[in-house]
Every structure is written in C-alpha cells, then in structure tokens.
Design goal:
This protein has one domain: 3-Layer(aba) Sandwich (Cytidine Deaminase, domain 2). The N and C termini lie far apart (about 40 Å). Strand 1 (about 30-35) and strand 2 form a beta hairpin. About 30% of the residues lie in helices and about 25% in strands. The chain is of the alpha+beta class and about 130 residues long. It is built from 4 helices and 5 strands. It has a 5-stranded mixed β-sheet.
C-alpha cells in the first residue's frame, strides 16, 4: 500500500464521521507527518456557521496532539464530483507545518483527482521559515 493509499483510506474512514447536518457535505483529511504517522480529521459544522471546523484543521490538530510537527503530505477527500481544494484558511494552516513543495492530494470518492504542491495553492506564502 502506498502512502497515498494509506492517506486515502484514513480520510475515507474519518469522512464517514463528519458532522455536516447543515451543508450535507462530508469532508475527510489525512496528514502524513515527518515520522510516517497518519493523522485524520473531518469537518464539524456548527449551527453558528462560522464556528465549524474544517477537516484539514482537525487532521493538523490531531498531528500536533500526537507530537508531529511537520506535514510530509496531506490528502483532502470531498463528496461528489467537484474538485475540492483546501480553503484559504486551511492553506495557511497547512503552511504553518509544511514547506511550499509539500504535496497536497485532492480526492473524491473514486480516488485522487489531482496533486498540487502547497506553493501552487498558496503562492509566495508566509510561514515559520520566513521568520528566521
């Protein structure tokens, strides 16, 4: 099983647990950290709509809680046929723990649809390495 297969399986498993009673759109995300561990998260909506949590943010929080500090790769799995990329806020969240060359895999129910580098999704980004 490849790393992408492992990320896809983790994202699919957690996507089924998403709390999306308002949009009906279930998202799962899985992060591969620097030690090779996989951490997953799903979207959690809230009646006070902007208070919800994106799947990517949940996966990153799980990684940090487990002691991970670097994203080696991330996979985002959306419902349906549309290409679902991380929102702007999640692109910046990913950047906090990744470098511009980090792979961001975007998937649908049938598998990976496209792979981007973080730099393609968030060009000329600002991250921790800019502070040195």
């Amino acid at each position: 099983m490849t790393a992408i297969d492992t990320l896809f399986a983790a994202a699919r498993a957690v996507q089924a647990r998403a709390h999306a009673p308002y949009s009906g759109f279930h998202v799962g995300a899985a992060v591969l950290d620097e030690a090779g561990a996989v951490h997953a998260g799903c979207n959690v909506e809230n009646a006070a709509y902007p208070v919800g949590t994106c799947a990517e943010a949940g996966a990153i929080a799980a990684m940090v809680a487990a002691g991970g500090r670097r994203i080696a790769a991330i996979l985002v799995l959306g419902d349906g046929d549309a290409l679902v990329t991380p929102c702007g806020a999640c692109r910046q969240r990913i950047r906090e723990f990744a470098v511009p060359e980090t792979s961001v895999h975007v998937a649908g129910p049938g598998g990976v649809r496209r792979t981007f580098t973080l730099d393609e999704l968030l060009p000329a980004s600002f991250g921790p390495d800019n502070l040195a």
